[in-house]
Structures are given as structure tokens and as C-alpha cells.
Specification:
136 residues; mainly beta; five-stranded antiparallel β-sheet; three-stranded antiparallel β-sheet; 8 strands; globular
Length: 136
């Protein structure tokens, strides 16, 4: 998958800027609470476990497994047409959080639940490198 004009770009704001900076540098970053050690994704202002506000960014291993997925066979717009068919998946990260992403680098028909995957990054713009996952 690569960027095509017309694809939706995620917003970069104060909460998410460190995450996107990590992605540009080839590093998947997650937030960790200093009060209870909970690791979370997506970026937020408070801990989802204890409501603590002392959050820091940690480098994730990039390892995970497919928790659930679907194969998209009909593009939602012309911008996504070159990618069809593609896999949209929920990835259970080794650190605990689940994130939605794409599984690439394999035939979509071979993707299955519990498949081990590792993060890779696809540069869409100067500011956005999208984390995607490929089988390990």
C-alpha cells in the first residue's frame, strides 16, 4: 500500500505528534503510565487504567499477532483502488494494546487469526509514515 492523493491522512496534534515522529523514524511508540505502568494505544492525555496524567513514550517491540481481520475487495474510493484486495486487521501488540492496521507482504488469503506479525512503515508524506504489519 502506498499513498495516493485522496487517501485519508491521520491528524497530527499535540497528543499524537510523538507517535508520528516515531513512525517517521521507523519506531513504533506507545504511551506508558508512570503511575500504574499500563501501556496504551492510541495516544491520549490520561491513562485509560488509572486516569493518571504522567504518560511517557516507550519504543514498542513491533511484534504482535493478528487478532481479527477482513479482506477489503472493493475500494472505498478511487484512491484505494490500486490496493484492492487488502487486509485490515486488529493487531494485538506484544506490549498489550490492540491497534488497527494493514497486513502487507503476503497474499491476503493467507492471513489468519493468531498469525505472528512485525511492524514495518510505509512513507505516505513527509510527515506521515504509516505503520503496517507483515508476517514474521
Amino acid at each position: 500500500m502506498s499513498y495516493q492523493p485522496g487517501k485519508h491522512l491521520p491528524p497530527v496534534n499535540g497528543e499524537s505528534a510523538p507517535y508520528w515522529e516515531g513512525c517517521r523514524e521507523g519506531e513504533l511508540r506507545l504511551q506508558q503510565c508512570a503511575s500504574c505502568s499500563h501501556v496504551q494505544f492510541y495516544p491520549r492525555l490520561v491513562c485509560t487504567r488509572c486516569s493518571g496524567r504522567r504518560l511517557s513514550w516507550i519504543a514498542a517491540s513491533g511484534e504482535g499477532q493478528v487478532k481479527s481481520f477482513t479482506i477489503v475487495r472493493r475500494a472505498v474510493s478511487e484512491a484505494y483502488a490500486p490496493d484492492v484486495p487488502y487486509v485490515v486487521a486488529l493487531i494485538q501488540l506484544a506490549e498489550g494494546p490492540t491497534m488497527m492496521s494493514n497486513v502487507i507482504g503476503c497474499d491476503p488469503e493467507t492471513v489468519e487469526v493468531n498469525m505472528p506479525v512485525r511492524v514495518t512503515f510505509d512513507r505516505w508524506t513527509e510527515e506521515i509514515s504509516m505503520p503496517m504489519f507483515e508476517p514474521t
